[in-house]
């Protein structure tokens, strides 16, 4: 954003800056280019000493829905955000004071394209849940089915657009002026987060994710997702079956054996989603998992879901096995294989950092089994060394961390490895199955034959271009930019030296002639020539001293 755009949203901009300053980021904000007068009332007030991570979370909560969602999305970027900040951002509460139903009723009517009474026989106007983007109500269709209705809050697009405009302007300023933040590339991170929030505003994606999970779900008798009523759902309204039950966080009253069984079912489902289906719930925390009245686990809120290709799933399985085995070299090698072509990571330094992370997070000798935290730290290490892996890997790490927390909430002795091993064995059978190997071999032969068929044509085209002298080879030298600048600088100095020498010789000849007019008893043109040559000589000497001989 340009400065005048900030002024056009001056009230909100000042509010954002004031909150950041109040939470201890005044020194950072002082480095950006703000219009005059913006800092008059933004002096930070002394408060309790808190960590940077905690101050970021508190500022996001105070700034409202857009920044809460932004914080939640940043908690899924372990490649650029340290895991200490990620763990704090995961505490962001997406629960706010509900708006009166009267403010959301126009959204519901506009989405249904009719009066709600024509669709719902009963509608409870008291919200049962309220988040930053939507509120949920219970209702009953005329067919007699009990449903939950998720309605998007009004005028949300305008609020989010304004907040993201200001956030992106602020990120651009910090990226330009704070060297320590340039490695993160804040403008790109903000742009990706903005696209994710806009996508989440379209409830049709969430409906599709729920339906797809139920299609892939191999154990519907253990876990499920609410059925979606497509005829009544739209971009801003989602109608799904009402699930009678309690959040998993309120299941402490169940017998220990039952809690262990629920923890196992939840963990096995997530692991199967990740490794076998390649499609998984992106945020399975305790608030998004219900224990239904029939004893099954219900996964709610599918606004965020991860997608993994077969290659990524297989690489992830190798990552997982290597991490559990504490095989640092294997982990670094897999990461290097998945790295972009232009990445040049320091593999030795990575091995040291990965070894330390595994010892701290996966030390089985002392009972430390934080697989999710270990994955977050590994992704951050890779990102710091220029290896940016798929965003879905980050989503997977957060999902694993969430399901580990849910598992330990239900079962203090919960061990994710025990539920992962059978799934990994099944994946390994899939990778080495004769049918898959035969299909890959057939694909390879088919592509090879197609390439051989095209080879004569490509050779004829190459020969034809050679015959017509139309073949050109473009060479681009890398790493010679500094040498090019040095040559230019040397050529400029040589040219100045020639000019200075010429001025001195010419001025000396003029002085010997004694031509008029005179200055201080000598020809004026000769004196002026000496002065110009002296000025240029001093400039050359000063430039050499200032930049050094290498210039």
- Provide the domain count: 5
Gyration radius, in Å? 33 Å
Helix content: 55-70%
Query: How would you classify the helix and strand content by structural class?
Result: alpha+beta
Oligomer: single chain
Query: Which spans of ≥5 residues are poorly predicted at pLDDT below 50?
Result: none
Strand content: 5-15%
Shape type: extended
Mean pLDDT across residues: 82
Folded structure, characterized:
The chain has 551 residues and is of the alpha+beta class. 58% of the residues lie in helices and 9% in strands. The protein is built from 19 helices and 13 strands. The chain has helices spanning 3-8, 10-29, 52-63, 65-74, 83-89, 101-112, 156-177, 186-200, 203-216, 256-277, 310-324, 328-338, 347-361, 371-384, 391-410, 416-431, 434-467, 481-513, 524-547; strands at 120-123, 129-130, 134-141, 146-152, 223-224, 237-241, 245-247, 279-281, 289-292, 297-299, 305-307, 518-519, 522-523. Strands 1, 2, 3, 4 and 6 form a five-stranded antiparallel sheet that branches. Strands 5-10-9-7 form a four-stranded mixed sheet. It has a two-stranded antiparallel ribbon with strand order 8-11. The longest helix has 34 residues, at 434-467. The chain is extended, with a radius of gyration of 33 Å. The two termini are 38 Å apart. The mean pLDDT is 82.
